[in-house]
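Troubleshooting: if your tokenizer reports a length mismatch, compare your output against this known-good record of 137 residues.
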Amino acid sequence: MLFMAVGVLWCKFAGRIFNRMPSEINIQLPQSTCIYFFGTVNWFLLKFCEITSGKNFKLFFVAMAGLYMLSSIGTYISSLNLLYTIILSVGTLPALYARYETQVDTIAARCIGVVKNLCKLFQVKVLDKIPRHRKLN
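Known-good structure output:
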């Protein structure tokens, strides 16, 4: 809608600003762009069919967890606020990382170590206590 409004305003006021009217706009996409776009759409459809058919359960559970997280985030935050936060983060986080790279890497390494220790502790205290069926030869 915004592009349509800008196009109408441009056509109405271009004659007054530039002393000539814009010619008819003819947009032609190269064939490689169309092939890439439809190839990407086809890839997404194939992944969707693969997920829904149950061929890859890991991908199915990852997709379900992602959709659940999106729905839970959506109940608390409006889509416009979420989009604004994502755009703001994409614009500022690379600059902040470039400025404070060493500090961020140090903190990230510490966090990774803590997560690894928690995973080992979880495996020792919970997962190793689960009885497993042993195969008899």
